[in-house]
Amino acid sequence: MNVVYKHIIRFVVFAFLQALVFNQLNIGFGIHLMIQPLFIMLLPFELTVIPIMGIAFLMGLVIDIFSNTYGLNTSSLVLMAYLRPIVFKFYGPREGYDPLKEPTSQDMGTNWFTVVYGILLGLHTFWFFLLEIFEIGRLGFILQKTVLSGGLSFLLALLIQSFILNSKQKK
Amino acid sequence: MRNLIAFLQRFRIFLVFAVLQILALTWYVTYLSFPRNQFLTTNNNIAIQFLEWEHDLTKHFNLSKNNSQLQWENIYWRKRQPQFMYQLSRSKVKVNDTVYEQQYTYIPAEVINSSVDRRNNYFTLNVGSVQGIKRGMGVFCQEGVVGVIHYASKHYSLVKTVLTSDINIDVNIRMKKSDLPGLLKWDGIDARYGMITGINNDLRIKKWSKVETRGGSGIFPKGIPVGKVSHTEPIEGQALWKVEIRFAADYRRLQRVYVIKNLHLAEQTALEARIPEDE
Fold first, then answer.
1. pLDDT, tens digit, for every residue of B139-182?
2. SS3 of chain B: helix, strand, coil, percent, to 5
């Protein structure tokens, strides 16, 4: 399958899963599951940062329209897209990334994925709740929401990746 | 000039980042207080279509519970209808010396999209300006108050619920001798608990006393339940109580609501506009 088509389909699937399924789940304890950072994470290695920020902006716009958050998701996704190449460079192999591989836990190893996606998702989620609550006096509550939501979203990301791997093996 | 171009070249990634961030944050700050355009909310045609399909699937999940709730409400009002009551005093002449006029009408609506765990939670209703919904109308459900209409498009509307940071609904705490007025707020932690501010701490508040709408601003009629006082503690350094209330309604599984149309609202606002501003 063409790489461009694959990512367009992923964009649609991730946006609708987030808007129509994960936004509707009220788990309690301030937990808010977010899968749209995984889409930004899974974009190909060779894409430069400006197109990634553009895609992140679009993705955030769609999610914001569906959840009445007025730009919160857009802002945090653009931040994550901006930081993605920096984190990738820091944890990358010395000879650079193999353009044939994808930034998934199957291609790059679970350790690499855990560290890189953990950092990016953590920053994304922290920025999201910081903007949403916007009170320095309640930093503890912001951190609690970040840790709970980020942790569960990370597990969800691993689960979704195992689905993507299974569909590859069948082919 | 060349230096400027070189500077832009060098920092163009950061500049693009800054522009996109400023766009997103401007959108966030302006829309929170007043949405000018329906396109960027769930009220636009495309998003609402998908949410309707989602709602068509999930609306049956709470059906039996909702039906029994409606049945209870019907029984409640039926018990208060005079024609179904036994007449105790028969031989007296009935003099009705108070003339009533209808002040509020109610528009039934269904919640098709909702959230309760954000800092600011908005619900989408399936009624809009075609049904006469306008910005600023009150919304309540059978158990209690829900919020105020934030934006109304042609067929749908957006409710700013009591679960937002700057909702400020006038409420009363019902006491034995007099009512204590205060403002309802929400601190963003738990959808079951809210707060009331502006009550001096020389007054005693009984736990589990009822909290109702005050009906001063013309948005809500007097006496729609809000919740019950669950906890009070003094605020440090101020002569005020921090009053925590437990909401009467469970916003996590809310489906059917009523929008309040105040028939006297235009008269009231026209009258209050005559207050001179300088005094």
1. 999 888 999 998 888 888 989 999 888 777 878 877 767 788 88
2. 30, 30, 40
The pTM of the full predicted model, rounded to 2 decimals, is 0.79
Percent of chain A with pLDDT strictly greater than 70: 95
Domains and CATH numbers, chain A: 3-170 (1.10.1760)
Tell if the CB–CB gap between B40 and A70 is shorter than 8 Å. Answer: yes
ipTM, 2 decimals? Answer: 0.86
B2 burial class (0-12, 13-18, 19+ CB within 10 angstroms)? exposed
CATH classification number, B107-279, choose in 3.40.50.300, 3.40.50.80, 2.40.10.340, 1.10.287.180: 2.40.10.340
For residue B124, list chain A residues with Cβ-Cβ distance below 8 A: 68
Name which of B8, B10, B27, B39 to mutate to probe chain A: the one with the most chain A Cβ atoms within 10 A of its Cβ: B27
CA distance A30 to chain B (A): 5
> Among B117, B151, B161, which would you mutate to test the A interface (most chain A Cβ atoms within 10 Å of its Cβ)?
B117
Pairwise CA distance, residues B118 & A132, whole Å: 8
